[in-house]
Each structure stands twice: as C-alpha cells, then as structure tokens.
Amino acid sequence: MSSPPLEIGLTPWDFGAGGLAQGLVGQAEQAEKLGFHSLWLPEHHFSGRGAIPSPLLLLAAVAARTKTLRLGTTSFLLPLRHPIHVAEEVAVLDQLSNGRVILGLGRGFRKGTFAAFDVPVKEKRSRFEAALEVMLKAWAGEPVAWEGDGDDGPGEPVMLAPLPVQKPHPPLWVAAFGPKAMAQAGRLGLPYLASPIESWSRLEENHARHREACDAAGKPVPDVVPIMRTIFVHENPATLDRARQALEAQAAAMARSGRSIPRDGAVALEDWALVGEPKQVADGIARYRERFGMTHLIARSPIPGVEPAELEASLAHTASLASQP
What we know:
- This protein is an alpha/beta fold.
- The chain has one domain: TIM Barrel, CATH 3.20.20.30.
- Helix content is 42%, strand content 16%.
- A nine-stranded parallel beta sheet has the order 8-7-4-3-2-1-11-9-10, with helices on both faces. It has a two-stranded antiparallel sheet with strand order 5-6.
- Helix 2 (55-65) packs parallel to helix 3.
- The chain starts with 6 loop residues before the first strand and ends in a 5-residue tail after the last helix.
- The mean pLDDT is 90.
C-alpha cells in the first residue's frame, strides 16, 4: 500500500524591512505558483518587527489574492481570546477563502504576553480546552446564547453566522511541546503539530506520548501527521556550507538568549534541519515519512546568510519534492 502524497507548505521567507505585512501577499502568490500546499503564520505579540499579533487578518489578505493555497496558523493562541470571536473570525476566513483554512492552535508560553492580556498562566490549558469546546459547539450549529427569557422558555436561540465552508469546521491541529501539552492534544484526539525546535529524539518521545494519550482517552490516533522543519535545498556545495554555518550560528545565539533551537540543546544541525542537495533532502524527508508517518511538511524558510536568488532556488527545489515518492 503506497503512502499518501506529501503536502508541503511553508512559512514566509522574507519579513522585509517594514515587517511581515509588506510583501506577504506577493510571497503567497509565488508559493501558490510554485505549487506549495499551504502558507503558515505563527502568532507573536510584542516582538518588534517580528510581531504577528493577528495572523487571521494577514491570511485574509492572502485569501483575496490566491485560489488554491491553504491558509494555516501554527499557533493561534486560544487562551487570549473569547471563543465566540474566534469561531466567527475563523468562519469568515473560511468563507472568504472558500474553505482553505487549517487552524493550528496553541496555548502560548511567554509570561509577558499572558500578563498583558490579564490571563493567569496557570489557567492557559483549562482556558484552551474550554474555548475549544465552545467553538466546536458554535460551528456545529448549536445555540451560543438565548435571546431573552419568556414565560414559555428561554427565548430564541442565538446562532453563529456565518458557519465555516468546511464541515463541521476547518482542520484543527495542536502545537504541543511538553508532556502536559502532548497529553492534552492526545486526549482531545487532535493532530500534534511538531515545530522546528524539536530534535529527532524529542519527536520520537512526543509522538509516543501523543499516541499513549489518544489510546488512554479512547480516541483514534489521527492520520494527519504535520511536522515543521528548517529546510534549505541547493546544488552548490559552497552555498550549502554557508547556509549550514549561518543556521548553526543562529541556533547558538538563540540558545544563549534562552530561546534554543532545538530545545534539546547542542545537537547536530541534521537533527533538526534538512540542508543539502535535492537528493539528500529528499532522502531526509523519506526518513521522516517512514519513521513518523509524516503527511504534511511545513518548511521554515528564512535562512540567514544566503542571497535572495539562492533562496528562490531552494524554494523551487523544495516545492518539487512533494511529487517524489
């Protein structure tokens, strides 16, 4: 029995001098032209030019200029928002894009963000799950409230409108890293979205935890297996060496700042990134597919130390890997 085709998406590769909004639509159009499956945005607050406080709003602009590209969030932070607002905005984006939304959900981890939104950190998991329950009921067409109270009952039901194009709702994935988050994702029966900061050994641990949590909750293990990896594909050995050195320096700098990539500390570049000639990267992807059953690969595309033309070549090579067995 052959494996299903691999769907390859990517993150924006050029944040530009003016921030993500400038040029994002152009990058999305190029990604669609190259044949990528999807474009993915994280959620970041209060981080200067790298801030992405409203990924759904940015994806709405992308939806208006693309036709087939799926629109994904890698970590839309439910604990910071009212669930009805989320349900409405996701439904509107799904309508606008004619059913192209994939909603990757997260809880968040930065204490400053929770403080700014007046959300106790210790409540993030309970708020996440409570919000998701409300959203699922709203998308299913259940009343979200009742209009007044009458003598004969609670009054007219208040229903969510519009509803998403995708039924019963867009695909939901969960960005999860630690044991508690993995347990929650498995208990909910939702796919675990692995990020580029997880090494090979951490992926093995997390997938095992996820399967165990699904089994314990009596939920089937999802057949969708998305993994994010840093990817750079090129045919020039000197260019590849420069990219490897730049990525290793970037990882070391982030480790010193407390934002280590990968989280496991000092491990080889090959343990968390795919950098090489097309055949090398294709073989690396096949390894992930064989070991984890990967169905969706999200390529983290910004690579320090490479020229725009070199990055363009890498993107074209990466897109072509989806057609390989």
